[in-house]
Design brief:
The chain is an all-alpha fold and about 210 residues long. Helix 2 packs antiparallel against helix 3 and helix 3 packs antiparallel against helix 4. The chain is rod-shaped.
């Protein structure tokens, strides 16, 4: 009896087109999802970095502003303290000028008045120069030095013409200082520069 060998037919190979189709169907969306996740993470990190940088910049600007305001307030306070002292200095200068003729004549009352006025001016000068040393407004300090130098010339003048000249220079410097102090106070209150040299330098550059 003959022996029959049964051989199962081989399974047909999957078409190549189906494999590519499956890859496109499933692989591309998965890859896109992964890429999206990576990109989102990168964007989130970049966004967080920008926020931190912006916050750090804002904090630095806030600290700078607060520091400038403290300096501005101190400058304004010092300038305000100068105003009554300028009035005292002016009164002393007028008293010295009024006492000068009598001093030359060796009048006792006039000599005492001159001494009192000089003492008052010296006390005022000491306080004013101490304040001026802390100022950022150099023009005010310059006017004060001119005023005190001229005022000293009243007491040492050898003739009436020199006394008048010294008096005129001292009172002019006093008025200039008072005017400058007022201008600087108003400028500070309006948010102007703390130092008057900022404006002076800007004007100088514009002239160049």
């Amino acid at each position: 009896m003959p022996i029959e060998i049964l051989i199962a037919p081989a399974a047909p190979a999957a078409p190549v087109a189906d494999s590519v189709s499956d890859l496109v169907k499933y692989g591309v969306p998965v890859g896109t999802l992964i890429l999206g996740i990576v990109l989102k993470a990168a964007m989130d990190e970049f966004s967080a970095w920008r926020k931190e940088k912006k916050a750090a910049k804002s904090e630095a600007e806030r600290r700078k502003y607060e520091q400038e305001q403290r300096v501005r307030d101190r400058e304004r306070e010092n300038l305000l303290h100068l105003l009554p002292l300028l009035t005292e200095a002016r009164d002393a200068i007028h008293a010295m000028h009024g006492a000068w003729p009598g001093q030359q004549a060796r009048d006792t009352k006039a000599m005492i008045a001159m001494t009192d006025a000089l003492a008052k001016l010296a006390t005022t000068q000491s306080t004013m120069l101490e304040i001026a040393a802390r100022l950022h407004s150099e023009s005010v300090g310059n006017d004060l030095l001119v005023m005190f130098k001229a005022a000293a010339g009243i007491g040492t003048a050898l003739n009436g013409e020199n006394a008048k000249r010294a008096f005129r220079d001292a009172t002019s410097a006093n008025s200039s200082a008072a005017k400058t102090v007022g201008q600087r106070i108003r400028a500070l209150e309006l948010g102007g520069p703390i130092s008057d040299q900022v404006k002076a330098n800007a004007s100088k550059k514009a002239g160049d």
